[in-house]
Amino acid sequence: MNSSFILTRSFPHTLKAFLQFSRMRNFSTSLSSEIKIPTVKHAVSKYFLPQQIRKIQTLDFCGVKEKVYESSDWPKEKYQKFFKNDTIAMIGYGSQGNGQSLNARDNGLNVIVGVREGGNSWNKALKDGWQPGKDLFSINDALERGTIINNLLSDAAQKELWPQFIKHLTKGKTLCFCHGFSIVYKEYTNVIPPTDIDVIMVAPKGSGKTLRSLFLDGRGMNSSVAIFQDISGDAIDKAVAFGVAIGSAYLYETTFQREVFADLVGERGVLLGAIQGLFLAQYEVLRARGHPPSEAFNETVEEATQSLYPLIGQNGMDWMYDACSTTARRGALDWYKHFYEANKPVFEKLYSSVADGSETRRVLEKNSSPTYAEDLEEELKEIRESEIWRTGKVVRKLRPEKKSN
Ligand SMILES: NC(=O)c1ccc[n+]([C@@H]2O[C@H](COP(=O)([O-])OP(=O)(O)OC[C@H]3O[C@@H](n4cnc5c(N)ncnc54)[C@H](OP(=O)(O)O)[C@@H]3O)[C@@H](O)[C@H]2O)c1
């Protein structure tokens, strides 16, 4: 395959962010030996002329070689042609269902949405212009009509509704996921696809809301792409073309297992869990030592999110350190090691809990409860009503841009 990677002008920020993100990743070579997932095959694609310059490259990230697909490899006319005989059934209309369905529809694919009738998602889809009987259906009807079935239900609902899915997964159809969860933890989910269909994954690395807003800005989001079963021989082309159609900028190759392990660790860790724990710990110490709420909040959250973290996003940690005073830099260089030592064992414990399935069992148990939505709201209310975040509400009102409004 002729591999040539051309950096387009439209995505320098996304690529930069991707490079930084990938550099920070430390791929484990000791993934659970119980789950064997095949890696992506690299067949020469019949959809490209031999002389065509492909926008794919194996990049070297600090000695680890990774394959990256670029959206310009699949111009709109090309994927429209590829999917011209397909009906894309987006099952579920939460954050991902909403963003992916609207992007694919705007990109000219034949999209239908399948959700339970009368539910929140149904009403949201109606507001977005999907029409019952035309492109909005019950889950069962959408599964029947779809040739490419994109499973965007909550992970717990994917387990619950699997018996409905399996009836419609006939030869020639394709099953797509945007998370490795259901397939990798099959012993808990019972999600075991028929062996005669393609099973692919396109997992945008961000919320569906951001996927949509980046699309509307004429940009794109980075996604992971993986193949679980390639029966047609076209699975990787299909997955990348589909990924581009739903709004991906760059797609980096992974496996179902690596995606779900990294994702579950990330959201429990730095992205959501660890960040709340760290903010709260510092805030409480400042408060206990006599600092008023606004000062504790400003030094913990406001300066981080408004000033320093965007600098990390733009050019990396060293660059952010360099933008700070010599006093701040000296202290940070001494103290980051203490935080590293305190936190590394917690991350090790977290990874093990993901790899041995404990996290999955908890997710399925909690999120399958009939009172799941109310229970979640109670826990979020506890965070919302805690002093730190009530203070945040007041501080946010005092941001300079609010004053000029
Ligand atoms: N959110 C993200 O940032 C993100 C990023 C990457 C990947 N993912 C993955 O994308 C998938 C979808 O996640 P999401 O965040 O978009 O949505 P979600 O909030 O997890 O799920 C929402 C959808 O599931 C439906 N649903 C839930 N329980 C159901 C049941 N018992 N019967 C029928 N439908 C049911 C909801 O319909 P109703 O409104 O009718 O309840 C709604 O359409 C998951 O695999 C997730 O891990 C998410």
From TrEMBL:
One of its GO terms (cellular component) is mitochondrial matrix. Mg(2+) 1 binds at residues 263, 267. The keyword Mitochondrion applies. Belongs to the ketol-acid reductoisomerase family. It is found in: Mitochondrion. Its EC number is 1.1.1.86. This is ketol-acid reductoisomerase (NADP(+)). GO terms for molecular function: isomerase activity; ketol-acid reductoisomerase activity; metal ion binding. Residues 255-402 form the KARI C-terminal knotted domain. Keywords: Amino-acid biosynthesis, Branched-chain amino acid biosynthesis, Isomerase, Magnesium, Metal-binding, Mitochondrion, NADP, Oxidoreductase, Transit peptide. Transmembrane segments: none annotated. Substrate binds at residue 325. Residues 66-254 form the KARI N-terminal Rossmann domain. Pfam families: KARI_C, KARI_N. Pathway: Amino-acid biosynthesis; L-isoleucine biosynthesis; L-isoleucine from 2-oxobutanoate: step 2/4; Amino-acid biosynthesis; L-valine biosynthesis; L-valine from pyruvate: step 2/4. Its cofactor is Mg(2+). GO terms for biological process: isoleucine biosynthetic process; L-valine biosynthetic process. Mg(2+) 2 binds at residues 263, 299, 303. The lineage of its organism: Eukaryota, Fungi, Fungi incertae sedis, Mucoromycota, Glomeromycotina.
